[in-house]
Amino acid sequence: MGELFEGLLNHHLGFVVWSGVSFILLLIILAKFAWKPIMSAVHERERSIEDALDAAVKAKEEMARLTNENESLQRQARADRDQMLKDAKGIADKIVAEAREAAQAEGAKMIEKARQEIESQKTAALNEVKGQVAALSIEIAEKVLRRQFDDQSKQEALVAELLKEVKLN
Which helix (DSSP H) or strand (DSSP E) does residue 104 occupy? Predict the structure, then answer.
């Protein structure tokens, strides 16, 4: 068995040596031609992954900043909206109050104008009635005096009495 083992070992020893030499040559060739590009690709990949992670962190920070800014803008917009609504309500109340005051003033003017119109119409009616009463009184007095003065002596007595009153005044 020893011979067989030695024969196999010698026979396999050459194979092992040539396999070792081939492996070392392959390592040298790979190290010279493939190792640098592979390592450079690995380093480039690491850099791109780190850059992507940094970009993701920056994007996350930017998103957080934008979210905070957006919330701040929304709060400001709500405050502005509330202020505008408050201002609009105040303006509307003011307009309503001014319209109410204007309507009351206009109503008072119309009432005063109507009162004056009624007063002037009342005065005109009274003047007309007085005129009619005076005309009727004169007409009645004329008729009474005509009947009364059919007699000449009564006329002379009335004229004399009127002259006395005129001289006294």
Answer: helix 36-148
* pLDDT by 10s per residue, the chain, length 169: 445 445 545 567 778 888 999 999 988 888 888 878 888 889 999 999 999 999 999 999 999 999 999 999 999 999 999 999 999 999 999 999 999 999 899 999 999 999 999 999 999 988 888 888 778 777 777 776 676 666 677 777 777 887 787 765 4
80-113 b/e (C-beta count within 10 Å ≥ 16 → b): eeeeeeeeeeeeeeeeeeeeeeeeeeeeeeeeee
Q: Are 155 and 149 in contact (CB under 8 A)?
A: yes
Contact indicator for 158, 149 with CB cutoff of 8 Å: yes
Dist. CA 74–CA 152, nearest whole Å: 114
Neighbour tally for 18: CB within 10 Å: 10
User: How far apart, in whole angstroms, are the C-alpha atoms of residue 105 and residue 109?
Assistant: 6
Residue holding tokens 């009727």? 136
Maximum distance among all Cα pairs of the chain, rounded to whole angstroms: 207
pTM of the entire predicted model: 0.39
